[in-house]
Every structure is written in C-alpha cells, then in structure tokens.
Specification:
With about 70 residues, this protein is mainly alpha-helical. It is built from two helices and two strands; from the N terminus they run ββαα. Strands 1-2 form a two-stranded antiparallel ribbon. Keywords: Cell membrane, Membrane, Transmembrane, Transmembrane helix. InterPro entries: DUF1656 (IPR012451). This is DUF1656 domain-containing protein.
C-alpha cells in the first residue's frame, strides 16, 4: 500500500483517510457511550475523547495494515 490515495488525480495522504474513518467511528462510540451514561464515570471528558480517538486511529491503521496482502 502506498503512502497516497489517488482520487480523480488528487493525491491525499493515506493517513488523512484513516483519520477521517477513525473520526466517524469515534463519533459513533461517543454517541453510544453518552446514551448508556458512561461519561458520568469519566473525570475529564475531553481528554477521554482524545484518548479514545487515538486508540481508534491506532486500531484502524493496524487493521488496515493487517488486511493488506
């Protein structure tokens, strides 16, 4: 897998695409955690959300590298 993705002649870094995927996955997780009331147990919600995003981004990158041939 190269370091860039070609979208109609515009090259974007693959990390940017992975970051967008992780952003939407994190948004879904944040919604689910808010619905079940998990954030009542969290001391600093913003730091927790940042850590959650970093973990999801790392998992996304690892999963994509694991799936590549």
């Amino acid at each position: 897998m190269s370091g860039e993705i070609d979208i109609y002649g515009v090259y974007i870094p693959s990390l940017l695409a992975w970051m967008v995927i992780a952003f939407f996955v994190t948004g879904g997780l944040r919604f689910a955690l808010a619905r079940i009331g998990f954030y009542k147990l969290v001391w600093h919600r913003s730091l927790f959300n940042l850590a959650l995003y970093v973990l999801v981004l790392g998992a996304t990158v690892s999963l994509i590298h694991w799936l590549k041939p």
